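Folded chain entry —
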Amino acid sequence: MKEQCSVSIYDPPISRHQCPRAGSVERDAKWYCWQHDPVAVAEKKKKWNDDFDRKFAATQEGYRRNDRRWQAREDAVKKLEEIEACSHPNGLS
């Protein structure tokens, strides 16, 4: 007889019950199905975290780039105002 997955899962209408799948991997004297295998879960979580970190870093870089663009625009406006002030007779605007 094949061992059953040893993970307890939450199902709202039933509450908690044991995973009904057959265990395919034995780790630390417990059986796990393909979905609840601790190694597979850790790999999936690591991949998800790596993807999230990469996307978050790209988003943050976009915000920093946008901030630099706005700062450059503000600096350009100040320079143009200085040039405009100097180009009028008697420094009048």
Remarks:
- Residues 38-93 form one domain.
- The mean pLDDT is 90.
- The beta strands are 8-11, 15-18, 25-27, 30-32.
